[in-house]
Amino acid sequence: MKYACLKSIASYVPKRCVKNSEFEKTLDTTDEWIQKRTGIQTRYFASDEENTSDLGFQAAKLALDRSGLQASDIDLVIVATLSPDYLNMPSTACLISAKLGIRNKPAFDISTACSGFIYLLSLAKAFIESNTYNNILIIGAEKVSSVLDFTDRGTCVLFGDGAGAAVITPTTDKNHSILDVHISADGAYNDFLFTPRVTKKSEFIQGQSIPQCIQMKGNETFKLGVKTLISDVEEILQKNEILPSQVDFFIPHQANLRIISAVGEQLKFSSEQVVITVQKYGNTSAASIPMAMNDVYESGRLKSGNLILLDAFGGGVTWGSALLYFGG
Ligand code: ACO
């Protein structure tokens, strides 16, 4: 039987670190409010010269090095992003492929907001297990700062830029495989989080100008997110007959410390099991899970064969969870 294996992980964080106190200068907000309501202390913003594909390229290059494969071994590149370099073409996956020197191989983007990395895992697993492709490069890359309204205190303090990448390869060893991935969506909640596309016709909503920036019904998203994530995580564990205590690392999407704590407490995970990076990076959308996984990997705690549980919730709304053994 052929399984899919997450062989290597890597991330890239842009240089400029932005503390909460920087927002105090221009907005009616405080470091205390941001930390208390979200857990966020800092986030990193890319420079004007750096685009999403540059961040993704750096993470992808390191993931490739760590996998022991060459760029020429990659059969497919998929990128999840809500902040692509271009509006709809060329895809960020095509741009990263070109930077890596990958030619004549399929490349495309997906748009599932913060659930991006779970959707990427689902696609990579399906392509490998169906014998369609062998070595797949998946990348969550975001320059969220390029779609933030820096006059909206309800959104701009929450997000950061960064990228995470993984190489997914075939294996015959189930104990080093991606065991299960669950993805879902409910477009009925499409107005909870959205980025308006400003055209001549839609430039004004109820007489108000709307910027092409992320808009979010924060509180409604918070409540739906907590409820959905808890039931999704419970379901994937039950379906695979795995107890929370058997999971080495629970790596949730990093949107808000209160969401992570609520889900972690419900599942009775210990603080050693739950990976938290939101305080450092803020919400880096599709990049947040691979960036967090890379942090545990680089700390030396994440070992080959460790069992990892992932979960995410984001715009669409979309959500998903995954159970996998790390490394080949
Ligand atoms: N500083 C100070 N006050 C603020 C700020 C700020 N930065 N932002 C909002 N407030 C105010 C609001 O205006 C409101 O004031 P009011 O009571 O006078 O109206 C008050 O704080 C409370 O606002 P709420 O929105 O109810 O605050 P809440 O506790 O819900 O926290 C937050 C807001 C942090 C956005 C939270 O709701 C959240 O994390 N939501 C979920 C985010 C998420 O998971 N998104 C999904 C993934 S993202 C993606 O897919 C792109």
UniProtKB/TrEMBL annotation:
UniProt enzyme class: transferase
Single GO biological process annotation from the record: secondary metabolite biosynthetic process
Pathway(s) annotated for this protein in UniProt: Lipid metabolism; fatty acid biosynthesis
Locations listed in the record: Cytoplasm
SUPFAM superfamilies on file: Thiolase-like
Pfam families attached to this UniProt entry: ACP_syn_III (PF08545), ACP_syn_III_C (PF08541)
Record's GO cellular component terms: cytoplasm
Ranges of residues in domain Beta-ketoacyl-[acyl-carrier-protein] synthase III N-terminal: 108-187
Entry-linked Gene3D superfamilies: 3.40.47.10
Residue numbers annotated as active site: 114, 253, 283
Catalytic activity: malonyl-[ACP] + acetyl-CoA + H(+) = 3-oxobutanoyl-[ACP] + CO2 + CoA
Molecular functions per Gene Ontology: 3-oxoacyl-[acyl-carrier-protein] synthase activity; beta-ketoacyl-acyl-carrier-protein synthase III activity
Ranges for domain Beta-ketoacyl-[acyl-carrier-protein] synthase III C-terminal: 237-324
ACP-binding: annotated span: 254-258
HAMAP family according to UniProt: FabH
Assembly behavior: Homodimer.
Job description of the protein: Catalyzes the condensation reaction of fatty acid synthesis by the addition to an acyl acceptor of two carbons from malonyl-ACP. Catalyzes the first condensation reaction which initiates fatty acid synthesis and may therefore play a role in governing the total rate of fatty acid production. Possesses both acetoacetyl-ACP synthase and acetyl transacylase activities. Its substrate specificity determines the biosynthesis of branched-chain and/or straight-chain of fatty acids.
Protein name: Beta-ketoacyl-[acyl-carrier-protein] synthase III
Native species: Helicobacter cappadocius
